[in-house]
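Pipeline run #58 for the internal structure catalog. This entry was flagged by the ingest filter as a single-chain record with no existing model, so it goes straight to prediction. Upstream metadata was stripped on purpose; only the residue string is passed forward. Reviewer on rotation: M.T. Logging verbosity set to normal.
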Amino acid sequence: MKQFGLEELDSDDEAEVPVLMQKAKNIEFERDESGELVLPPMKDFKTIREKQRVIRGYIGAVYSQYICFTIISHF
């Protein structure tokens, strides 16, 4: 597995930070035509830790989306 040093990440501000170095809550997910979040294919991630982080981020994002909708709809 390739190790990423901080100097590699700092060298290009536009570079995408690998999932293994992101916090789960900072992972962004695409949306489908109806606006629902889409879980990316697990084959795109090599390690169990990357897969766990993506799934954890996805669950958190979906939960946040529906909690905000529920709170707003009650007011």
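catalog note: Residues 66 and 72 are 10 Å apart (CA to CA).
catalog note: The chain has one domain: 6-73.
status: ready for reviewer M.T.
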